[in-house]
Specification:
This protein has one domain. Helix content is 67%, strand content 4%. The protein has helices at 2-32, 41-51, 78-82, 86-104, 106-136, 141-161, 163-179, 186-199, and strands at 58-61, 73-76. Strands 1-2 form a two-stranded parallel sheet. Helix 1 (2-32) packs antiparallel against helix 8 and helix 4 (86-104) crosses helix 7. The longest helix is centred in the N-terminal third of the chain and has 31 residues, at 2-32.
Length: 223
Amino acid sequence: MIGKLLLMSGIIPVIVSVFARKFFCDRTLRRHGDETVAINGKEFAEAILSQGKVTGVEIEEKRRPFLPIGPDRLVISPSICKSKKARDVAAAGLLAGLVLMARRQKKVVSWRAWAVKFGWAMPSFSVVIVTFATVATSLLPSMAIGIVLGILGFAALALWFTLPVEREAAKTVAHFLDDTAIVNRRSEAEVLSELVSALAWQRLVPGCVEWLVPKAKPKDVSP
């Protein structure tokens, strides 16, 4: 009974997260993600920080699965830094928006960073623990699966509860795009604004099951 309860409490939040991400994020990525814009990711991030009147932020080009950001630190994947693909540029802008938020509400942003990290690490770690417990003790396999899925469901709920942090950062970036000339073409500003708002929903699925979710493919516009 407890195993079934844990099973359901874990599966439902993850399924809801997957469908929400597909609706709010992946659809926009399919429409606009592969478009090319005039600036690259690093330039866009620097422009957002400049519009927010923030100085002294160290921008590191490193690949990290979590959100290693803070009031004075921004880590961006090298591929995103150099890319002019709209989805990558928007992703860099969203990270810069989170740095601006961290200047005002450091603890709130750290909660979001913790939730993302927890979603990557804890469910995977729990698989190792319950596997050992099943082999070494009398823990039933059904209970072990229930425990893992229960932790996975908790990770999904943590991502839901901290989602407003990224949505607020996305609103800040979209506001700069609407009211300033960060990009010269209005059409590019509108595309980036849509993508930034969509990408705020991307980290809604726990990272440890990210590879199970089909990637958003560009929309085929060929006749």
